[in-house]
């Protein structure tokens, strides 16, 4: 150990690697490039990973939306092309029959999927806004950020079919004055007065959501628009450990049996399975992490082999010098340590510089992608991975250094000295 | 100091072997300055290499200051070389990216001497060979004679029992040779045992004893009246 901290040891090492600077630098670049690639790839894939996570953080990751369409197969005496409509009570049936379902909420909308949006009026200001009939449980599946003082629709609103609404940021801007508190204020939706109980901060929790959406209790919606037992679609969240693909299949099967649809009819019910999409994306991100690990390690390996190669040449060139050292009393062990330490030292320097450069590039990419939608957040390489990479490099550097080191001591000092 | 008995050494050259040393017996007392002379191929370098533990004899015994030198592994040989022997080579064999001082201090490094002490001692020996002002120069900035003096200082610095010089003047002109020999004589005057391999008679005459080697045997071993190099400089 004393050997490692002796100033002279390092002088020996600097002396010999400083002898051919160009060669040393080019050698170092080999490993540096390897670790650089590794850090950038690992960090970038982590950044993508984080980015995807962020994009999905407002929605339950195993959400499924399902809606009804028309049958495409005749069944049980019904002809093909029958229009289907989801019923509110289907939700209860689904929840009872499929234990994997954590939450389920029927939703009705106006002005979202075509059709006329509701006319929102306040005083002289007016505009049309999509209206959603929501159960309070929706908040558990798609996090709704409500601005201060406000709240989301609650159970009592639903039970009593209160005429309350949660409006969007845009709705607030358009219908209220700038310094006016919208909470408690009234707006008219399609001729009926609603009290504003909250303003939701717009986050994309459904592909069709906008910042002008107005949420009202499902029961109020039913009365206002006369939807009866019909529901436009169901928002469903499965438990975290559920197999979302299977859950989707089960849901469709139950719906088909309720609505007397041929079990093989693929068109009767539509569904969008976020869980499946999410799993696919996460799988992609994990694959990317894995690939970056492999590519990075392979590149590091190539670089380290380069160092070994150069040291082999260097040992050949230094045969005589090593012979002199041994004539003066250097033991084979000391000569070997010198060469190995050179190898490890070069590898470490390259590694550290590579890590710093990699971190710099990651930071740069992060800054460039900060303000856009690109799913890329906080690209970090976990410290254990960095330490692991350095450790791998030290080990590889030692192993690869063993070859030239062994070569250096395999020549007898007398033969080494004789070489001119 | 050195005692060798019935030393044999042969080299394998393909199918036939070359018998280089054919039973050498010889003894060197402490404080002697011995020249080993012989034409090329007489076995003098081989003998020196065996004495220097750079090579091993096939048979025979070799005692250095009462220590039997045999069955050496590389590590043991390295330690013995470091402690007991100082080498001076024809081609100086300085490490070209190290300064004169660092070159001289190198054997002490392998003795694990602390750095400061090492440098002080190296400086002392550089002063002794008259190169104190050149201590921070690289070998490439020194003349041949200066390089050989650095090499002598390096050989001396570990205070070895025996100095072994292989054609130490072979790469030098005669004036410089005599200067180097004067240094060798001075070192010998201080009581150091020195063995010089040479094929130059005038260099041999500056020693105290000449051993003539021919075809692997000692043909003549004579004490001579030393010619002081100083007279020639």
Automatic annotation (TrEMBL), chain A:
As for membrane topology, the entry says: Multi-pass membrane protein
Superkingdom, natural source? Bacteria
Regions that span the bilayer: 25-44, 290-315, 335-361, 381-403
Q: Which Pfam families match?
A: FtsX (PF02687), MacB_PCD (PF12704)
Q: Where in the cell is it found?
A: Cell membrane
Q: Which family does it belong to?
A: Belongs to the ABC-4 integral membrane protein family.
Query: What protein name is recorded for this chain?
Result: FtsX-like permease family protein
UniProtKB/TrEMBL annotation, chain B:
Q: Which Pfam families match?
A: ABC_tran (PF00005)
* Occurrences of domain ABC transporter (ranges): 2-233
Entry's Gene Ontology molecular function annotations? ATP binding; ATP hydrolysis activity; transmembrane transporter activity
- Tell me which InterPro entries the record gives: AAA+_ATPase (IPR003593), ABC_transporter-like_ATP-bd (IPR003439), ABC_transporter-like_CS (IPR017871), MacB-like_ATP-bd (IPR017911), P-loop_NTPase (IPR027417)
Write the record's keywords in alphabetical order, separated by commas.
ATP-binding, Nucleotide-binding, Translocase, Transport
Q: Does the keyword Cell wall biogenesis/degradation apply?
A: no
**Under the cellular component aspect of Gene Ontology, which terms does the record hold?**
membrane protein complex
Q: Does the keyword Ligase apply?
A: no
Record's family? Belongs to the ABC transporter superfamily. Macrolide exporter (TC 3.A.1.122) family.
This protein is called what? ATP-binding cassette domain-containing protein
Organism this protein belongs to: Muriicola jejuensis
Top-level taxonomy: Bacteria, Pseudomonadati, Bacteroidota, Flavobacteriia, Flavobacteriales
């Amino acid at each position: 150990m004393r050997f490692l901290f002796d100033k002279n040891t390092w002088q020996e090492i600097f002396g010999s690697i400083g002898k051919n600077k160009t060669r040393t630098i080019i050698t170092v670049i080999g490993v540096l490039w390897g670790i650089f690639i590794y850090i950038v790839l690992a960090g970038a894939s982590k950044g993508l990973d984080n980015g995807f996570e962020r994009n999905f953080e407002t929605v339950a990751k195993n959400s499924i939306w399902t809606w009804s369409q028309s049958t495409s197969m005749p069944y049980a005496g019904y002809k093909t092309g029958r229009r289907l409509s989801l019923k509110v009570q289907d939700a209860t049936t689904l929840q009872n029959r499929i234990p994997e379902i954590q939450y389920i909420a029927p939703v009705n909308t106006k002005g979202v999927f075509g059709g006329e949006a509701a006319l929102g009026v306040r005083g002289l200001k007016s505009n049309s806004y999509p209206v959603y009939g929501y159960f309070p449980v929706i908040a558990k599946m798609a996090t709704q950020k409500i601005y201060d003082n406000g709240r989301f629709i609650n159970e009592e609103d639903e039970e009593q079919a209160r005429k309350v609404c949660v409006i969007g940021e845009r709705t607030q801007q358009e219908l209220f004055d700038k310094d006016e508190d919208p909470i408690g204020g009234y707006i008219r939706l399609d001729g009926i007065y609603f009290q504003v109980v909250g303003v939701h901060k717009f986050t994309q929790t459904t592909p069709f959501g906008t910042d002008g959406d107005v949420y009202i209790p499902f029961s109020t919606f039913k009365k206002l628009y006369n939807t009866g037992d019909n529901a436009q679609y169901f928002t469903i969240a499965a438990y975290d450990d559920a197999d979302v693909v299977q859950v989707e299949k089960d849901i469709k099967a139950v719906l088909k049996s309720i609505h007397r649809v041929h079990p093989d009819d693929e068109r009767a019910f539509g569904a969008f399975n976020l869980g499946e999409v999410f799993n696919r994306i996460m799988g992609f991100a994990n694959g990317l992490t894995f690939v970056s690990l492999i590519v990075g390690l392979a590149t590091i390996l190539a670089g380290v082999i380069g160092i070994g190669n150069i040291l082999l040449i260097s040992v050949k060139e230094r045969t005589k010098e090593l012979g002199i050292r041994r004539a003066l009393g250097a033991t084979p062990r000391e000569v070997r340590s010198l060469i190995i330490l050179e190898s490890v030292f070069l590898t470490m320097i390259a590694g550290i510089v590579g890590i710093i450069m990699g971190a710099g590039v990651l930071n740069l990419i992060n800054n460039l992608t900060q303000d856009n939608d690109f799913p890329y957040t906080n690209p970090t390489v976990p410290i254990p991975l960095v330490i692991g990479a350095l450790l791998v490099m030290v080990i590889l550097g030692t192993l690869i250094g063993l070859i030239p080191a062994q070569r250096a001591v395999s020549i007898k000092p007398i033969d080494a000295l004789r070489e001119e | 100091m050195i005692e060798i008995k019935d030393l044999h050494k042969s080299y394998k050259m393909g199918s036939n072997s070359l018998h280089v040393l054919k039973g050498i017996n010889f003894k060197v007392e402490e404080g002697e300055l011995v020249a080993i002379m012989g034409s090329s191929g007489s076995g003098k370098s081989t003998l020196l290499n065996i004495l220097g533990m750079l090579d091993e004899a096939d048979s025979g015994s070799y005692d250095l200051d009462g220590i039997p030198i045999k069955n050496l592994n590389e590590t043991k040989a390295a330690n013995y070389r470091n402690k007991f022997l100082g080498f001076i080579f024809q081609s100086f064999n300085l490490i070209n990216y190290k300064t004169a001082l660092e070159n001289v201090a190198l054997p002490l490094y392998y003795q694990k001497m602390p750095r400061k002490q090492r440098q002080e001692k190296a400086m002392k020996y550089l002063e002794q060979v008259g190169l104190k002002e050149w201590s921070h120069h690289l070998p490439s900035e020194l003349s041949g004679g200066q390089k050989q003096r650095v090499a002598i200082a390096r050989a001396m610095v570990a205070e070895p029992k025996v100095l072994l010089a292989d054609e130490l003047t072979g790469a030098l002109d005669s004036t410089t040779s005599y200067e180097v020999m004067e240094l060798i004589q001075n070192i010998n005057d201080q009581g150091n045992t020195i063995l010089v391999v040479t094929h130059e008679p005038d260099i041999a005459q500056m020693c105290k004893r000449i051993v003539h080697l021919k075809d692997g045997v000692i043909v003549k071993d004579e004490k001579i009246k030393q010619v002081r190099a100083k007279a020639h400089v």
